[in-house]
Amino acid sequence: MSDGRLPIGERTRVLVLTGAGISAESGLATFRGAGGLWDGHPVEQVASPVGFAEDPELVWSFYSARRRDAAAAEPNAAHRALAALEERLGDRFLLATQNVDGLHARAGSRRLVEVHGSLWRTRCSGCMRPAFADATYPVGPPLPRCACGALLRPDIVWFGELLDPATTRSIDRFMRDAGGSGDPFVFLAVGTSGNVYPAAGYVTAARFFGADTWLLNLDPAENAGAFDHTVEGSAVQSLPRLLGIDG
Ligand code: BJW
Ligand code: ZN
């Protein structure tokens, strides 16, 4: 774009995918790279069902610390810019976030799907009892258990686990509707390294449905080649400008 803004007009439909980088300037660690969240812990140890079975106290300690960090953090200008864009576009907008920190909702986003779950919900590791809101900080021992006897666990999508079909369906439906509408369609990814699937593949699906695809990330992302446009920069500094929204 010549004026450095996304081409968002009256009829444009916009799907946004965010990752840990959008919360970095709120003080929350990203996953990969120097100082990343998993420094010192193999990923599988803290974010997989096998890791939880082997050492549930380590996993709960990790997620309780993340709950504390997220509770202490505040949404930043990039979270707020997306909430303002939603206000303008209404149901022509959908925000899919891989983040579990709750900062988008706290910034005012409502057309929001949290594809990797939420730090602020807990569920049973053994039965189908629905996930429930939880702002406690278990570390154990003892760890909290369900009435069925099984350990409770964070309602997070770990490696090897399926995303909630309802969230996947709402993203698929948004893309299909956008593709079939004849309206301009923009896909924008912000602050994500493009390492983790299926989210890293949304750009390819969006292109299939005719989207103009944009990436805003501090470092080159793994899947950068799949985008039509890439902008290297900070989400807080660049996103309000890209969206034409005053920070
Ligand atoms: C800034 C910034 C600033 C910094 N401004 N930018 C297809 C192909 C290959 C593999 C698979 C595949 N399908 C499934 C898989 C397996 C697996 C997978 O993808 N593995 C890869 C590692 C290869 N996927 C799964 O298991 C998924 N399940 C699934 O698909 O089920 C079906 C299936 C199972 C098994 C086999 C086949 C099919 C589930 C994935 C769940 C991921 N969960 C995690 C952890 C739990 C959540 C939590 O604890 O918070 O979610 S992994 C972790 O990575 C977390 C994140 O949401 C996710 C993405 O990370 P993100 O957000 O991109 O963060 P970073 O740190 O990587 O990057 C941050 C970026 O920001 C950096 O690039 C910086 O430059 C940038 N940045 N500051 C702008 N200020
Ligand atoms: Zn149970």
Would you give an account of this structure?
- The protein is an alpha/beta fold and 247 residues long.
- The two termini are 20 Å apart.
- The mean pLDDT is 94.
- It binds ligand BJW and zinc ion.
What is the strand and helix layout of this fold?
Layout: E1 13-18, H1 21-24, H2 43-46, H3 49-54, H4 56-72, H5 77-89, E2 93-97, H6 103-107, E3 112-114, E4 117-124, E5 132-133, E6 152-156, H7 165-181, E7 185-190, H8 202-208, E8 212-217, E9 229-232, H9 235-243
Parallel strand pairs: 1-2, 1-7, 2-3, 7-8, 8-9
Antiparallel strand pairs: 4-5, 4-6
Helix pairs in contact: 5-9
The structure holds ligand BJW and zinc ion (ZN).
Ligand BJW binds at residues 19-21, 24-25, 30-32, 36, 47, 98, 100, 116, 156-162, 191-193, 195-198, 217-219, 221, 234-235.
Structural descriptors:
single chain; 247 residues; alpha/beta; Rossmann fold; SIR2/SIRT2 'Small Domain'; 2 domains; six-stranded parallel β-sheet; three-stranded antiparallel β-sheet; 9 strands; 18% strand; globular; binds ligand BJW; binds zinc ion
